[in-house]
Amino acid sequence: MQTAKNVCMTFAVYGQANVCTIHAERIEMKKRYCTYFFCILTLLSFPAKGHFQTDVFDAPERWERIAWSALEEKYKGAKLEDYEYLGRTQVNDEETKDVFRVTVNQEGKSFSAHAEVYFHPVTNAIINVNIFPL
């Protein structure tokens, strides 16, 4: 089996050095195109900051599930009704708060309770969850 170098030498011997040069240029061009293709593919695979993450990770539904779990844990055996999202407040640059209200029916008593979920607005890491009756 001949290597590319041997083939080029064979062409050169027969006076066809141009064919070898064209073949080598085509190989280099294919390498360049593959490199460009993978660079563009890599760049396009990164979502735009703020666009993708805001839609997926910033939704109140994520914090709602966390608040609901905390309410169920605090008021075990109670019936939770009238669940409502009250809104979002930016506490400071590193802390945002989502507030939820629920009516708790426990041992014949009915009262409202709030769940506050504190999280980092950029990383979406949970900072704290506060549950308290009103």
UniProtKB/TrEMBL annotation:
InterPro entries: DUF3889. Pfam families: DUF3889. It comes from the Bacteria. This is YqzG/YhdC family protein.
